């Protein structure tokens, strides 16, 4: 179902001046403003417990380069949300359309659990090699079916709508850029910019990046942040590396 956009063209920090609600379909909003850049927010859907799953769009909605950042997939891995928040509060890229989902799993973040409120690991719930894994609440429970969870379904709708040319899904705590799949040149540059090794990690059934790479070939990759809370300079370094991907 279509929602309503209200776009802001004020400077950085005007996040509250850009409010939109996209109901479950995350579909066409009637067209973005023509010319210039935008800063606007959307509710992509709601979690199992009814919390909003918010997204922020920054930059040129007509740009060919579309970048997606997902900050927190597992609720006990919150550092990516800090990087996403820094991006959302920052400048609008002039030559890219940047989409930011700070927290895909708000129930898990509130409870400090890996899974969502039904005990599902969202990173095993996507339709790419999905298979039944574990019981609810176990570390890698994959859910009743692919995209059975409102959080993963909201992310899938956004990916299908935006079709990102580059997507970064943040996790913790391995301190590595996963080179197993995705845009190799972007991964190498990102790893160099943030000072992390580039290493191929195992490809897991039902993972978000594996699925996204079937929608837009070799677009998505995982960045495993260091453990714990990131110091402010480290957050800025990661946000800066993402901005360089957008060309800003």
From TrEMBL:
Its cofactor is Zn(2+). InterPro entries: Peptidase_M14. Residues 7-248 form the Peptidase M14 domain. One of its GO terms (biological process) is proteolysis. GO terms for cellular component: extracellular space. It comes from the Bacteria. Keywords: Hydrolase, Metalloprotease, Protease, Zinc. GO terms for molecular function: metallocarboxypeptidase activity; zinc ion binding. The keyword Aminoacyl-tRNA synthetase does not apply. The keyword Zinc applies. Belongs to the peptidase M14 family. This is DUF2817 domain-containing protein. It comes from Actinomadura physcomitrii.
């Amino acid at each position: 179902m279509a929602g309503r956009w209200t776009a802001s063209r004020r400077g950085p920090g005007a996040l509250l001046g850009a409010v939109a609600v996209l109901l479950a379909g995350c579909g066409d909003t009637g067209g973005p403003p023509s010319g210039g850049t935008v800063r606007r927010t959307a509710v992509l859907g709601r979690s199992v417990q009814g919390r909003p799953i918010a997204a922020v769009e920054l930059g040129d909605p007509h740009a060919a380069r579309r970048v997606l950042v997902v900050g927190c997939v597992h609720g006990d891995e919150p550092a990516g949300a800090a990087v996403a928040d820094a991006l959302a509060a920052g400048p609008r890229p002039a030559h890219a359309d940047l989409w930011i989902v700070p927290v895909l799993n708000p129930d898990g973040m509130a409870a400090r659990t890996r899974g969502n409120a039904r005990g599902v690991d969202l990173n095993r719930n996507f339709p790419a090699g999905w298979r039944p894994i574990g019981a609810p609440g176990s570390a890698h429970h994959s859910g009743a079916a692919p995209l059975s969870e409102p959080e993963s379904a909201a992310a899938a709708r956004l990916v299908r709508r935006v079709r990102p040319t580059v997507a970064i899904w943040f996790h913790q705590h391995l301190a590595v850029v996963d080179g197993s799949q995705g845009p190799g040149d972007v991964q190498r540059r990102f790893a160099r910019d943030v000072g992390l090794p580039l290493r191929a990690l195992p490809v897991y059934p039902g993972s978000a990046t594996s699925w996204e790479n079937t929608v837009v070939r070799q677009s998505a990759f995982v960045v495993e942040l260091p453990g714990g809370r990131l110091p402010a300079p480290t957050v800025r370094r990661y946000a800066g590396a993402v901005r360089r991907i957008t060309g800003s």
